[in-house]
Amino acid sequence: MSYRVLARKYRPQNLEQLVGQENLAQSLKNAFENDRVPHAILLHGIRGVGKTTTARIIAKSLNCLADGTLKQPQVTPCDICVSCQGILSDRHMDVVEIDAASHTGVDDMRELTESSRYKAVQGRYKIFIIDEVHMLSKSAFNALLKTLEEPPLHVKFIFATTEIKKIPDTILSRCMRFDLSVMQPAKIIKHLQDILEKESVLAEADALAMIARAADGSMRDALSITDQAIMLSGSTTVSVTIVEAMLGLSSRDALFGIFESIFKGNIEQAIQSLHTIYDNGGDPLLITQDLIHILYWVICLKNVPSLSKDIAWPEADRQKGQQLATSLPTSVLLQSWDLMQKSHDDVRNSHQPSQALDIALMRLAFVKDVLANPSAVSGGQNVQSSSVTSSVSRASMPQTFEAMADLLLYAKEGLLHGHVLHDVHLISYAPGHLVCGLSGRAPKNFGKLLKAACERITKQPWNIELRQDNSTPTIVQAKAIERENLRQQALDHPLIKEILHVFPDAKVTIN
Ligand SMILES: [Zn+2]
C-alpha cells in the first residue's frame, strides 16, 4: 500500500472541514446559500493555510450536480457527482487551474480570456483558479483586467496570493477579497491529534507542540513535518527527540540551560554549553533565533502567567520558562531581548558567526550584572541577599542607608527593619551617622532603639539625628515610585506593546 501524504489524504473537502478559517467559511456559506458568489474572488494568506484548497471547494460548490438542476451552488458539495469527481481528480473541463509563477506572460492571459468566452461544457460555470497571481507580469494583468471589467456571466475567477501588495489596485478593486487566518498553534495541535488518532500513530504531546511551532502558522508545513516524523519514528512514537533531531533544533534543555547559567553569573558554563551545541552541528544563527524565542516566551510568561497552562507550548518549556520568569525582573528580560535582537544581525553578518554569538552571550551576562546592581534597579531577592552578604563580609559599617536597613534584617531586628523601610524619611546618611525625619507610626524611642541596635551590630558608635522633615520618600515609597517608572518604561517597550496587543488582558508587573 502506498503512503499518501497527510496533507493530501486529509485535505478539507468542504467548508465544514476547513480548519481555522471560520470567518471565511461563514462568508462563503452565505454567498452559496443566497447564490451571490462574486465573479472574482481573491484569497490572501501565508503559505499553507488553505488557499488552493478553498479555491477547489468553491469550484466544487459552484459546479456540483447534486440537485440535478445546476440552479444553485451547493453549500456542501457531494463529492460523488461527475463534476465533483472531475475537480477531485484535476480533470474537470470547465475548471482551469493555473500557476501564475510559470505562466506570467501576456500570451497565457490572452489564451485564458479567449477561452472564457465559450460557455461551460460540464458545469454551471467556467472557473479559472490562478495561484500565486501576484507573479503575473504587468501586461498579463492588463489582459486579465479587460475580462474582469466585463466578465461573462458564466465565468468565475478565483485568485490566490501570498503577496497582496504586488497586485495592482485596478485588479484588487474588482475582486471580493478574503484574508485567510494564520493557523494558531493550538488549532494545529488539535488537528494533528485528530489525524494521528485516525492513523493510529502515537505521539508525545510536546512533540506535537514543537511541530506546531516550527510550522509557523502553516497547516501544510505542520502536516509535512509530521509526515517526516512518522517515517523517522518507524512504528514507534513520534517523540520530542525525533522532532528535535529532524528540525535541527538544538535541544531546548541545553538552550534553557544557557540562560540559567548566564543569569546565575556562570558565563563559563554558558559558553561551554554553547560550544557543545556547535560541536553537535548547531548553527549559530538558528541558535540565536531559538534563544530569542525563548526570551520572548519567558517575557510572555512573566506578563501572562496563565500561559503556563497553555498546552500549545511544550510542558518542558512552560516549566523552565516559569523558573526564569519568576527569578528575573522584567527590566533584565527586556534588555536581554533587545540585546539578542541586535546580536542576531551581528551573527548573521559576521564572518565568524559562532564567535559573534559567544560575544553576544558575554554581553548578556554583562547587561545582567549592570541591571542587577541595586543602585541601578530595585531588583528581586538575589540582589538583596547579595548586598547583605557583601556589606557584612567586606565592611563592618554599612556604606549606604539601604545597606544599613539590610543589616538590621540580617541581625534579626525585624521590627526595627520594618520601621526603617516604612517610616524613615532620609535626609542624609554616612556610615555611623543618620539624619532623618520620622513618620508617626514609629515608636517614640525609635532613635534610641535604632542607635542601640546599630552599635550592637557594628560595634562602632552611631549618631541618629531626628528632624521634623518628612519631605523625602521612605525606602518603600521610593521602591514603589521606581517600580512604577519601570512599569511605564516596560509599557513603552515595543515587545510589551506587541504582547499586550496579542494578550489584551495581560497585566504588566515589575518584580
Ligand atoms: Zn457534486
Which keywords apply here?
511 residues, alpha/beta, Rossmann fold, Helicase, Ruva Protein, domain 3, Zinc Finger, Delta Prime, domain 3, 4 domains, five-stranded parallel β-sheet, three-stranded mixed β-sheet, 23 helices, elongated, binds zinc ion
In short:
With 511 residues, the chain is α/β, with parallel strands linked by helices.
**Order of the strands making up the biggest sheet:** 2-3-4-1-5
Number of domains: 4
The CATH class of the largest domain: Alpha Beta
Radius of gyration: 33 Å
CATH topology of the largest domain: Rossmann fold
Strand content: 5-15%
Helix content: 55-70%
Largest sheet: 5 strands, parallel
Q: Which structural category do the helix and sheet elements fall into?
A: alpha/beta
The N- and C-terminal alpha carbons lie at a distance of 59 Å
Instruction: Tell me the total number of β-strands.
Output: 8
Mean of residue pLDDT? 86
Low-confidence stretches: 374-395
CATH architecture of the largest domain: 3-Layer(aba) Sandwich
